[in-house]
């Protein structure tokens, strides 16, 4: 058994940085940036369908104002592709005079034109990064059946928004079309709320454009279509958090933290591609995890010498860190209590001598047992 092959070298750390010292630290020179990768705005269609209780509210600028005021470093606007620029919504905007003013002074009833314009205008590298995104929506917005997927893109503009609904565009009838579009635009795809009962994701058409999934308040860590089930199928999927905000919840819960050398859209998306990102529930926590000097998101070859696993966490926020667990192939391989007096720091360091193959990640919990942070995995392969 794996547990019998683990030797605990250190169990807890003092108030020093969990990144450790030494030139082998894979997080050296990187900073943790906090963001929300799944955020909606108030499309006009929602006013048409239910003006008293619209599905989403707020303009792109208003949502970005809220995100920035809550201290987020980056945010992605990901409106539903089946609802963007719906003809009924466009007609409503024109009829009610609720149109947008673009930077050149022209007026438009197109939500897509305005969204791209706002993303470009509000992106301020080094201060606040905005990302243009989409949520590809099959079935209905309310049920999600058979699942939703996010596309996150490196540019300010896209040639289209790739919807399967004939009422607006109808140019991406299948998820394969959407994945192809994401690849063409050099984007990244994320499985949105994949394990929720009201509309679980369909993984059968998954391709390597998707490299991560939302953990939904850690509910998607275990269970049907959850993190461990998907990883157990051999898919290389990282951990992400998002508010899926519809009514200004942006940044309130379920955030993504990415390690990058600087705060730019390019650097954040590069970290996402490498799965140098992880999920946090509410408060920012700096969580590091490495195996044989390789960071989360990496693939490690065990040549027979075993594995050195290190992990650390710290937070300046009012949340107690109670224990940290090392998960190997869906099972707890090691649990270490956080012994710092302020419960703001904890660390784990172990050596695994045998039975090393599989996926590993670390999960941090508070005193009640609720997850505080979950890392993206590291995959260990045997030398052939």
Short synopsis of the structure:
The chain folds into two domains: 1-28 and 285-384, Sandwich (Immunoglobulin-like); 31-275, Metal-dependent hydrolases (TIM Barrel, Alpha-Beta Barrel), CATH 3.20.20. It has helices spanning 44-49, 60-69, 87-96, 111-122, 175-184, 227-232, 265-274, and strands at residues 6-10, 31-39, 74-80, 100-101, 107-108, 129-137, 148-153, 188-192, 210-214, 238-240, 255-260, 277-280, 286-291, 294-295, 299-302, 307-314, 323-328, 331-337, 345-352, 358-365, 371-375, 378-382.
Write the element-wise H/E pattern from the N-terminal end onward.
EEHHEHEEHEEHEEHEEHEEEEEEEEEEE
Q: Examine the secondary-structure arrangement and name the CATH architecture of the largest domain.
A: Alpha-Beta Barrel
How many domains is the backbone divided into? 2
Helix content range:
10-25%
Please name the CATH topology of the largest domain: TIM Barrel
- CATH top level assignment of the largest domain: Alpha Beta
User: Can you say what the CATH homologous superfamily of the largest domain is?
Assistant: Metal-dependent hydrolases
- N- and C-termini, Cα separation: 22 Å
Number of DSSP-assigned strands: 22
Count, helices:
7
Overall residue-averaged pLDDT value? 90
Structural class: alpha+beta
Shape summary: globular
Main sheet properties: 15 strands, mixed
Q: Roughly what fraction of the amino acids lie in strands? A: 25-35%
Low-confidence sequence ranges: 1-23
Radius of gyration over all CA atoms, rounded = 21 Å
